[in-house]
Amino acid sequence: PFLTKRNDLAPEALKYNLLSPIDYVPADTASWRLGMMRNGSIPDDNLRSVACPVLAVASAEDLLLPSKEECARLKAHIPRCAKVILPGRGHTPMLERGVSISKIMQRVGFTPDSVSAANDMIEEANKSNKSKKFLPR
């Protein structure tokens, strides 16, 4: 398939029939989704205002989207952004064998303690600025 190599899929992807959306996407649907990705970019100034920690994860071999480039852009503009590039992975790395988002989060220090602290910070920011919510809760 276009999104990932079938041999690299984790058993869970097969067990829960997660392949069906990968095997067939109508051309007009794919075109609409790609248009959203092309035209839906968040301005750099908005990214600079993100106050919470962000973990940007991209695949080195994503053939569908410029994931590495977008990950680098996020890292450059979000003050508290950690960046991880997954070598040898395609567009759907979370369906592939050997990819564990929890292990990636642990490796870069994006643990429950740091996430909890970020949530506290977001709640404080939301209380002090009632007209603009930083993240939905």
Radius of gyration, taken over Cα atoms and rounded to an integer in Å: 17 Å
Mean pLDDT: 75
Q: Unreliable stretches, pLDDT < 50, 5 or more residues?
A: 131-137
Level of helix content?
Answer: 40-55%
**Oligomer state of the chains in this structure:** single chain
Strand order of the largest sheet: 1-2
Straight-line N-to-C gap = 36 Å
| SSE series | HHHHEHEHH
Shape: globular
Number of strands: 2
Explain the overall architecture.
The protein is mostly helical and 137 residues long. The protein contains seven helices and two strands; from the N terminus they run H-H-H-H-E-H-E-H-H. The protein has helices spanning 11-15, 20-23, 27-39, 44-48, 67-77, 101-107, 112-128, and strands at 54-59, 81-86. Strands 1-2 form a two-stranded parallel sheet. It is globular.
What labels describe this entry?
single chain; mainly alpha
How is the topology of this model organized?
Elements: H1 11-15, H2 20-23, H3 27-39, H4 44-48, E1 54-59, H5 67-77, E2 81-86, H6 101-107, H7 112-128
Parallel strand pairs: 1-2
What would you say about this model in short?
This protein has 137 residues and is mainly alpha-helical. It has helices at 11-15, 20-23, 27-39, 44-48, 67-77, 101-107, 112-128; strands at residues 54-59, 81-86. The chain has 7 helices and 2 strands; from the N terminus they run H-H-H-H-E-H-E-H-H.
